[in-house]
Amino acid sequence: MSMGPGVVEGYRKVAPVVTRDGGSVTINAGGIYYRQMNEAIRAAVADGTTHIVLDNVNGQRYIGTGVSAKGVKIDVHGTAGNDLAMFMDGPTIEVFGSAQDGVGNTMNAGKVIIHGDAGDVLGYGMRGGSVYVHGDVGYRVGIHMKAYENLVPIMVCGGKARDFFGEYMAGGILVLLGMNTQFAEQPLVGSFVGAGMHGGVIYLRGQVESWQCGKEVGITEATEEDMAALKPLLADYCETQGTDLAEVLSVPFTKLAPFSHRPYGKMYAPM
Amino acid sequence: MPVSFIQPEFKVKIDYDKCHKCGRCVQQCGWGVYNFNERPIPDDSKCRACHRCVTYCPAHCISIEKNQLAYRDNDNWSPAARKAIWRQAETGGVLLTSMGNPLPYTRIFDQLLLDACQVTNPSIDPLREPMELRTFIGHKPDSVGVEPDGQGGFRLAEGEGLQNNLTLNTPILFSPMSYGSVSLNVHKSLAMAAQRLGTFMNTGEGGLHADLYPYQDNVIVQVASGRFGVNQDFLNRGAGIEIKIGQGAKPGIGGHLPGEKINKEVSSTRMIPQGTDAISPAPHHDIYSIEDLRQLIYALKEASGYKPVGVKIAAVHNVAAIASGIVRAGADYIYLDGFKGGTGAAPQVIRDHIGIPIEIAIAVVDQRLRDEGIRNWASIIAAGSIRSSADVAKAIALGADAVAIGSASLMALGCHLCQSCHTGCCSWGITTQKPELTRRIDPEWGAEQLTNLVHAWSHELQEILGALGVNAIESLRGSRERLRSLGLDEQTNKILGVKPAGM
Amino acid sequence: MITRPRYAEESPFKIHGGCGLMGICDESGTLMSGEDAILAMAVQHDRGNGLGGGFAGYGIYPEFPDHFAFHMMYHDIQAKEESEALFDEYFLVDLAEPMPTRPVKGITGAPLLWRYFLTPYPNKLEESEMSAEDYVVEAVMTINSSVDGAFVASSGKNMGVFKGVGYPEEIGHYFRLEEYEGYTWTGHNRFPTNTPGWWGGAHPFALLDWTIVHNGEISSYGINSRYLEQFGYKCTLGTDTEVAAYLFDLLLRRHKLPLELACKALASPLWDEIDRMPASEQALMRSLRAVYGPGMLNGPFAIVLGLNGGMVALNDRIKLRPLVAARKGSVVMVASEESAIRAVIPDPDALWMPKAGEPTIARVKGMDWPIHGDLHLSPEDISCAVTGTEVSCDVVEVNA
Prior knowledge:
The complex is a heterotrimer.
Chain A: E1 17-21, E2 24-28, H1 34-46, E3 51-58, E4 73-79, E5 89-96, E6 109-114, E7 130-133, E8 154-157, E9 170-176, E10 199-205, E11 217-221, H2 224-241, H3 245-248, E12 253-258
Parallel strand pairs in A: 2-3, 3-4, 4-5, 5-6, 6-7, 7-8, 8-9, 9-10
Antiparallel strand pairs in A: 1-2, 10-12, 11-12
Chain B: E1 10-14, H1 24-28, E2 34-36, E3 40-42, H2 52-56, E4 62-66, H3 79-91, E5 96-97, E6 112-114, E7 135-137, E8 146-148, E9 154-156, E10 166-168, E11 172-174, H4 184-197, E12 201-202, E13 219-223, H5 232-237, E14 240-244, E15 255-257, H6 264-270, E16 278-280, H7 290-304, E17 309-314, H8 319-328, E18 333-337, E19 346-347, H9 348-353, H10 358-371, E20 379-383, H11 389-398, E21 402-405, H12 407-412, H13 435-438, H14 443-468, E22 483-485, H15 490-496, E23 499-500
Parallel strand pairs in B: 11-21, 12-13, 13-14, 14-17, 17-18, 18-20, 20-21, 22-23
Antiparallel strand pairs in B: 1-4, 2-3, 5-19, 6-22, 7-10, 8-9, 15-16
Chain C: E1 17-26, E2 32-33, H1 35-43, E3 53-58, E4 68-74, H2 77-90, E5 91-98, E6 112-120, H3 122-128, H4 132-146, E7 150-154, E8 159-164, H5 168-174, E9 181-182, E10 184-192, E11 205-207, E12 210-216, H6 221-230, H7 240-254, H8 259-266, H9 271-275, H10 279-292, E13 301-307, E14 310-315, E15 324-328, E16 331-335, H11 338-344, E17 350-352, E18 360-363, H12 379-387
Antiparallel strand pairs in C: 1-10, 1-16, 2-9, 3-8, 3-10, 4-6, 4-7, 5-6, 11-12, 12-13, 13-14, 14-18, 15-16, 15-17
Helix pairs in contact in C: 1-5, 1-11, 2-4, 4-12, 6-7, 8-10
């Protein structure tokens, strides 16, 4: 991105170079401001392009944000910026690299596959679709995921997670595998797991101490029925992430589910 | 001559069409309002508007109304002022009353507003995220000395770190109220609640009854001028010790528990003979000056193996300087009682006209201790009409470490603020020793009521902290930046260290 | 009539704002161009609003390693003359020159920017019976408090702060940072919610060789500042950064806490966690928290402390502000966003998100660590030095 001595620029507010190859469009996002890059993405989608490749991405925000389209695939090469796939409704985004904070924020449908790690506050208010992270994730992952009618959001994280995993969770399926991690010595997940959880289900591959969990969740070993339901989802994850399903299934899963859909009913006294 | 110029304050109305004639009102009233002659007949002059009969009437047919006697308008001579004159002309006595100051002084808490986070920093969700209320009462060093632990880490150096503090799960304690002024069942309720809540009750000056020994780790024992029930065993049992100099309802005034309240149990707890008056002198006669206080503080520390020793004073005009002296005398906490604080009995003139508001006292004491660089040396407990969790939050934001609740805790047990504790006839069984009345409080129920109240306030405090965007009470403590005043004058704002709303 | 600004008084009220930040340190002491720092901040452009940007570089003046490098901001020539007269009183001035700058679109209203390489007059230093550091801080204090329209942006050895009103990449270009080489750089992008009119209010905030950049909003500012006032510090800038700087000064220099523990005091573990610790550690943490509770920084923050010995990054105890760290060989880098790191280090050996409240520390080989061992001034002097407020004489004796 250096443009010669003394003229270092982060992003240039110019249209990116776009090359077309049949039904596929490649956008060179290197050094391009997010707004111009995303305009190129939307233009390609409007043209009926079903496969968009973003090269040299580094930190551009809002990739796939607000894009409503079925059958569109976006490949991201590099580090995806904040709010990846926010409000997204339909497309598949595959990130060959890591993602930052806020992936899948209020996402409605579609699929996000991240081959690296991801940051804090993933899937905030996510209502549908799926997010598959290969590696570690940060704080407040799966926060307030919710389900509505036939929309059930799914998030699978292959590494380890920090505090507040599944906080306020109201629906959907949140899975943590603890396999592809750079924090081998650290616990699978931090504290306050499922704090405020009142819907949906969390599966952890391995054990969790009760002090790590919110007081609103019940901790049980996943049953054969649970695993049977979970298996197709894990198989799909493994296929996209190149993870060995047998290894995933070689460790017993813990299931966290809320005691109540109304955890705070007793806390308030009407006057 | 008329029997009295003073007419009944209340009128007891019974809807006899609904009345079951069950006589429960007769049985419930501690003041002897009712006679029963085929139906209950009330004597209005005895009614205190305590609502015991109203609450227990199965037919809901009793109502208590104000006696709306018209007095010729006179803003200067209120009906209350006229009644006081008449009462004193009839009796020649000092007017005696109970509970807190009811006069319409400025309520500063009601003119302070708390802040909340919007955008620039986030509010925090108290239901799901940690929201810490843990509070330590006691001396804290200015710094923490550490040394390498030989394994690449650090540990406290010898003699360093936090020592001899009381740990509270919530910054709310129960105020001192003596066994004698309140019933044993009230004391048991307070002690059980304190244990369940992880906080402390305070014996007041009447000793510690043996029934409370199981809860002694959650009891602060009080040493007052009468030294009732104070012996080595008493000091050993308390988790902390408090020297009572004065209280907000009657600064500078001693106490007097009449002999008729000194029954066998009270007698054994106070270690005085049955039936004698329990008289607390106005001052401690071993404390005539600040250096004497130091001597007593260290006597108690020596005797108790260096338990935290606090000093309770009424908030008076020069409270900041007094507090500084108390802290320098070695007190681990200073308990400030504002002029609206409650009491079992006090001369009305003292209760209503002496002392200063607790809000002011907290502000000036906290600032003075900071100015002198000794704020860490002692904690501040604030009391004197803490009415809600909002008052708790504001008191803490002004600089208190914790608050103590007396009137509010008695209200949780049924007190309706009829201000007649001194009669010993409390229909709710709180401020009485009459067995037929004291058994009205089941300690298990009482503990539940008190626990509920403090839990509810603690939850509300957590909500307030969350709105303020902090997750620990120490980040609100003394943070006057999070308060604004509304309608207070500039000088008061300056004294409180608070900006007016809009600034 | 022209009234010159009192540079200390940016705002009588608490200043709100968010931000982005970066820090990079080569622990081997190898020098890096300032271009990397600019690039890392340029990538985080949208984290600021153009009302403040700045950098600190360490190791940038190898030709003057033992001089105190003063970066000065002057409102006008009179402020410059008055300040230089003071320099002449205190120091041997080995070089005085305008800061090299270039015109950059968007940068306007710059003060007069000069730098000086100074050594204390040996005889005066001896007479003063002070350490050289104390002597320098006293000079800084004198200038900031007695010369209207003059502000000392930095005053450490072999380091300097470059800051102003603008986006950080613009400020970096303006100061020609690509022409400097340092072993540590920190950078900051400011998003104040008011409109500061002066360059001194940008980050980094500096005292001698210490600098602080900070992202977030400390919700406990009110009690943090009152706590510091108890020790004599005067929090007159109304910024969280100032409070953080004084807290580090108090804990590290005056109370001699090890850096790791100072960080634990400022971003304390939760009680639940403390209660699960082994007894000895529990006693220590319990004490730290009970004693330093009023100093705990509560609310969202990420902070990078730079100093000649290296760099420390820390964020709040429940991770309300982003912070990413990476290592490549001997280079440690932190930033608010991973992309900022990847722009500089495309293929790090490791890249991770530090845990809430756990410091990321880089120490430069062979450099002193930590901090201001030779500084003995009182908090009043320290805060007066950095903010330019005169010491009020009603400060009550402090027992600490």
